[in-house]
Specification:
The chain contains two helices and 16 strands. By secondary structure, it is mainly beta. The strands form four sheets. Strands 5, 7, 8, 11, 14 and 16 form a six-stranded antiparallel sheet that branches. Strands 6-9-15-12-13 form a five-stranded antiparallel sheet, with no helix packed on it. The longest helix has 15 residues.
């Protein structure tokens, strides 16, 4: 939108008053100059000037108006740009710039409340995501979400058995916790907005100790891919429960459909392994 600055003539004589009338009268009709008013009677002119000065505070000052009429004789006009920030006291009136629109097509998931739980107990109503994304040598895996062998808390934990036989010839295997189940980036409404979380914590242990696995979050690709991903790296477990965490600071968590990932390999566990997981929580 184009804007213009009109300077009032400084002549305070009757002639000067009449010169200023087209500008002052232009503020009538909600500040839009639609027609120039000329008042020849000096008495009426002074009444209008005083009234407008009281209402708008425009006597001897400058003002921004829309260019919708020709500039009256004796009035100077120059084009100006609208500042992006409010003017300081003593500066001219400023119109704030409009807020930037969100990037077109950006995915934002369903906003969640923290803490946001992936798994705490088999029957917990506030569990999220499903361990449906089996990868690599998936034929080497056995999963039990209702394991009652010494859970960290509650009555159950997750047990994963990996045989390392190479059923699909991959040499590794893993499981993605997905939303909804089996979503490999094909479901537009699958992601959660976990913005605000600073870490993903979980408890883990091995059956014997020295089991090696990697733990991650995010990273689902496809038409509706996750907004970010990160990993805790390779972890060597003990046979005692221990809490681990994945740092989430600085990540874009606005759309996460792959809430948790576990991966292992026959190179790290040539004889296979059994691991246990519990209390997987975004905080």
């Amino acid at each position: 939108m184009q804007t213009w600055k009109y300077k009032l003539a400084s002549n305070r004589t009757k002639k000067g008053v009449l010169q200023n009338l087209p500008i002052l009268a232009g503020f009538v009709n909600q500040g839009v100059m639609r027609r120039v008013l000329v008042v020849e009677n000096s008495y009426k002119a002074l009444v209008i000037v005083v009234a407008l000065a009281v209402v708008f505070g425009v006597t001897g000052c400058t003002r921004l108006v829309r260019q919708e009429a020709a500039v009256a004789p004796g009035v100077t006009a120059e084009r100006i740009s609208i500042p992006e920030a409010p003017a300081a006291p003593g500066q001219e009136f400023a119109v704030p710039a409009p807020a930037a629109a969100a990037p077109e097509g950006a995915l934002v998931g369903k906003k969640v409340t923290l803490p946001f739980r992936v798994y705490t107990d088999r029957v917990a109503r506030d569990n999220h995501y499903c361990p449906s994304g089996w990868m690599g040598d998936y034929g080497d895996l056995r999963l039990n979400e209702n394991c009652k062998t010494t859970p960290h808390s509650g009555t159950t934990c997750i047990e994963i058995k990996y045989s390392a036989k190479g059923a699909q010839g991959a040499g590794w295997a893993g499981i993605y916790w997905q939303n909804p189940p089996n979503n490999w980036g094909t479901v537009k409404t699958g992601g959660f907005d976990i913005t605000g979380a600073t870490r993903l914590t979980f408890w883990a242990r091995g059956e014997k100790g020295k089991e090696v696995a990697e733990f991650k979050m995010g990273g689902i690709t496809g038409e509706y891919s996750d907004s970010d991903m990160t990993t805790a790296g390779s972890v060597e477990l003990t046979n005692k429960w221990k809490q681990y965490q994945i740092d989430l600071n600085g990540l874009d968590l606005s759309y996460i459909s792959g809430g948790f990932v576990w991966v292992t390999s026959s190179m790290d566990n040539p004889d296979g392994c059994t691991i246990y997981l519990d209390d997987i929580i975004y905080e």
